[in-house]
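Page 37, top half.
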Amino acid sequence: MKKLWMILLMVTVLALSGCMYPDSERSGSTIPYEEQLRAVQSAVEQYQENSGGLLPIKTRDQDVDAFIKYPIDFSKIVPAHLEKIPSNAYETGGIYQYVIIDVEENPTVKLVDLNGPERIRELNLRKSVNGHVPIEEMLTKDVFLPNFSAMGLKEAPTVKSPYSDRELPIILSSDGNFYIDYTADLHDAVADKKADVESGEDIRHILYDENPILPAYSLPYTVDEEDNVIFMTEK
């Protein structure tokens, strides 16, 4: 009886450990390590220097989201310029896609959190089944809040912000695609005067200038004459 009790206790502890520390977190795959970013940045620069200016990137369609347009092809820099692929990279089971932005002027390594596109992928599956997306509210003439209840969801899906503690809503554009809504984070950044922004410019850069993670899968935003954050489609 005592032996059976010990076995049950061990199983319970292991089960709780698994819940508290998922495999991805135990492996450090959810943390955007600065040293890993620096190592990949250095490897990209070495590759570019040795290849006559080429970048170690995968080919993507020209009309893809600018933030995910240039994903890093690790096969081109590992192991020649980088010992191994970072543990938090998608290729090794992590939640981040390593990408390069500003490829013409200043190629810079950044990260895309793949939790967001995973939520969007799930919504796209529901959209393909239903054939349409019911609308709950029109935010602008081109941006809408979907009726997630009518889509069969008990609650509206959200995405954890990489810039704050809030859960970000998912919206729908007139192009038929779902996007993550960063309005609240941008409002905070503008209100705190963290950066000078002008009406008519895409202000999303104020989120990632000092942060390794990009606001991918989002619509472009700007500010109006009173520094209120608005979708650029409103201009």
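Page 37, bottom half:
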Amino acid sequence: MAKNIVITGSTRGIGFGLALEFLKQGHKVCINGTSDKSIDMALAKLVDFKDQLASYAGSVTALSTHLNLFNAAKITFGSVDVWINNAGISQTNSLATELDPKEIEQVYNINIKGMSLGTLTALQNMEEQGYGQIFNMEGFGSDGRKMKQMTIYGTSKYAVRYFTQSMAKEAHDTGIQIGALSPGMVITDLILDSLKTTDPKEIERTKNIFNILGERVETVTPFLVKGILSSSKNNDRIAYLTNGKVMWKFLKSRFKKNDFFKKT
């Protein structure tokens, strides 16, 4: 049975990859980006699925964006079965004391405030229709791990896990499922952009880690989509990069090296 999906931050990266995979499987998707230009560029790439698409441009930091996004999907498709809070940004790979306060504010506004507003908007509207699933995108730091020069981003993603788990408890009796998506280390524009102003030595260290543990969007998104469509329990966590996979990747790296950055 085809489902109706809303994905924030879905004009590129993992969000776009998720949208494309859902569309390929016959589902309907409402995409979101910060501008009409980004929406138009994404729609042009998805022209083969135009009858399965809706869209709304706006920043996830504004409550109105989430309200209008839900309404756009509801008007076009009739309902929203799955809402994915994917929109997020990384930080410049720098010490927290070296970051512009405006950048810190932006990371927290998009990664925490935007995700929170999206969850609350979707939950309230899904309660009215009597069903639905909400998934929030985790990232480095969600499990409490720490890394130099990733303090602000890691803090924001740690907050995502806490908020998701706490909201799952609050939604326990509503019939609405709230869970998390953990894609692991995926090579996206988000990652590439964050490296542009980084110290050369740090760039090489980061590249080495991603060449061992990294994956491409088209590898990870089918796994996440399959997990979403088969998920039925509240507070579910769909994780691509498990501890077992990490061990296997490090073992495999002794014999075969990836080079995701050879063109950068």
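Margin note: The mean pLDDT is 90.
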